[in-house]
Amino acid sequence: MIRFYFHPTPNPAKVALFLEEAGLPYELVPVDTSKGEQHAPAFRAINPNGKVPAIVDTEGPGGTEARVFDSSAILLHLGDKTGRFVGSPGDRPELLSWLFFLASGLGPFSGQAVHFQHAAPEKLPYAINRYRREVERHYRVLDERLAGRDFLVGESYTIADISAWGWLDRAARVLPGETDPLAAFPDLQRWFARIDARPAVARARAVGKDHAFKKEMDEAARRALFPSNYPPAAA
């Protein structure tokens, strides 16, 4: 059984999509990051970095536990475990390259674009421009890769596509003000529509809908979400 530590944000959404695509049984464990639940010692024992997603994958009754954090690591773990969505053996170098590109580029730059446009106390034009332009550059890299292709790697749907979908599903929040943030990237737009039409996507979007996550961005939430912005508590 897999315990899946979840909050309704892009990186956990990738893992939700894999689980729904593969039909793997899992127990959903909500982690309300706006309440600071990601900093609880029990969760830090699973992910010392205090971020979601994370999983605890138990093999058989009384079996050993695999604790895996970071969405890319989880996708690789589950892909290798099941043999699903990892392409052919010859695809492995490109699969890793695109997965790491998404993990080190599209994801963090999209996250910073969201932060400086929606969460930062000051609207800093330089920071907003920097991260929006970098997101657009990453979109362009993906658009060029997808010219004449249905999937990012090889001839089949893989964890690279699942990973990319997680943040591209939030393109309107990453690049607010655009009527269609993907319109300037037609091959990426075509690819996204193809992935987004998969039945598992609707199921992944429904994950956690029955849990009342905190939505208010009050001072407690800011301290929980951005603890490095605050001085450490006195000993």
Brief rundown of the structure:
The protein is of the alpha+beta class. It has helices at about 10-20, 40-45, 70-80, 90-120, 125-145, 160-170, 170-175, 185-195, 200-205, 220-225, and strands at about 1-5, 25-30, 55-60, 65-70. It is globular and about 55 Å long.
Describe this structure in words.
The protein has 235 residues and is α+β, with helices and mostly antiparallel strands. The chain has two domains: 110 residues, Glutaredoxin (3-Layer(aba) Sandwich), CATH 3.40.30; 109 residues, Glutathione S-transferase Yfyf (Class Pi), Chain A, domain 2. Helix content is 50%, strand content 9%. A four-stranded mixed sheet has the order 2-1-3-4, with helices on one face. Strand 1, helix 1 and strand 2 form a beta-alpha-beta unit. It is globular and about 55 Å long. The mean pLDDT is 96.
What are the salient characteristics of this protein?
about 240 residues, alpha+beta, Glutaredoxin, Glutathione S-transferase Yfyf (Class Pi), Chain A, domain 2, 10 helices, about 10% strand, globular
Overall structural class, as computed from helix and strand content, comes to: alpha+beta
List the domain count as a whole number: 2
Q: CATH architecture of the largest domain, please?
A: 3-Layer(aba) Sandwich
Number of helices: 10
Q: Work out the helicity level.
A: 40-55%
Strand order of the largest sheet: 2-1-3-4
- Give the N-to-C terminal Cα separation: 40 Å
Supply the CATH superfamily name of the largest domain.
Glutaredoxin
Which outline best applies?
globular
- What is the H/E order? EHEHEEHHHHHHHH
Radius of gyration: 18 Å
Pfam families: GST_C_2, GST_N_2
Domain GST N-terminal: 1-86
Protein name: GST-like protein
Domain GST C-terminal: 88-217
